[in-house]
Amino acid sequence: MRLLVTGGLGFIGSNFIRHMLAADRKVSIVNLDLLTYAGNPANLSDVVGDYGGRYRWVKGDIADPRVVRRCMAGADAVVHFAAETHVDRSILDASAFIRSNVVGTQILLDAALRHKVGRFVHVSTDEVYGSVASGWSREDDRLEPNSPYAASKAASDLLVRSYVVTHGLPVVITRASNNFGPYQYPEKALPLMITNWLDGKDFPLYGNGGNVRDWLFVVDHARALELVLRRGQIGEIYNIGGTHSCTNRELVEQVRALMGINARLVRRVPDRPGHDRRYALDCFKLKKLGFKHAYGFVEALQSTVGWYRGHEAWWRPLKKGGGYQKYYSRQYAARLQGRTAG
Ligand code: DAU
After folding, report:
1. Ligand 1 centroid vs 53 CA: distance in angstroms?
2. pLDDT tens across 252-284, in order?
3. Sequence-ordered list of residues with C-beta below 8 angstroms from that of 336, at least 6 positions apart, any chain
């Protein structure tokens, strides 16, 4: 199977590529990735060495129809990860989110149609359902996105749906919960917490820390995506949830215990504007397809902490970079002054 993966130098995309190349010797992959701030060739340096003959990176933009058409030619299937993903960044400036997540998706869909691609997996998020006070979001629930990021993903999901209905494009949508694991850019809560604590620095906890997230190990996410790619029904949506749901306060305590941190090292900061209180996914459809998680939460968290301990050379340069520092000063300047955009 010749796969076109978009955004494969990012966190989830790179873990998926590593998984697919190891799982099936008949898979070859073209990875279309622009190398924006969250992409990193180091995320796949082992893959280049081990599977170089079956893997190729094309540096290019999913919003550029020419490069997209070139990469799409000859692909049997597409798995589309490329996206701006960080909620806080979308609050500061939503423009890149519309360009990549909405326009980029439309350009990919058009190219897939033109090249008669056999299958297109659109990787989306539980955030499109909005905050759920109780119960679990099902795939046919109403979309109520609350952040500009979530709205851009919901827009892309609806665009995908329209290509199935109008053009018969063979697309499947997946919606996953909060991923964690190796190679996650350290602006997200878990890698930020772990790497700050390795340096004896505080983790900034938003609001009262009572927000609930459902944690999915990225390797299990990659396994679920492979299943959906091979066996998912065209036109269907599959929720992909994790194995552990908890408040951010509880997460802080679990990581603290695992890392053996005695000091408090948590600083309460003003809440994220529009902060969704709780996400929770009903994963009955995925289970019916045959999915079972392979990793428990504690062992996955343990191995993730161990990975960040053992890979300082991966994350330190990212945190020292000018872009990272600039983002953080902008983020907290805005938050502390009560501004939410601009
Ligand atoms: O639910 C799936 C989504 O999970 C993905 O679609 C998004 O791309 C991904 O970024 C993630 O969104 P969240 O906003 O839930 O993830 P984040 O790691 O930013 O935050 C997790 C929780 O921790 C959230 O309730 C906000 C809180 N938080 C986050 C950061 C970065 C803090 O308390 N302090 C922080 O510094």
Report:
1. 36
2. 999 999 999 998 999 999 999 999 999 999 999
3. 269, 270
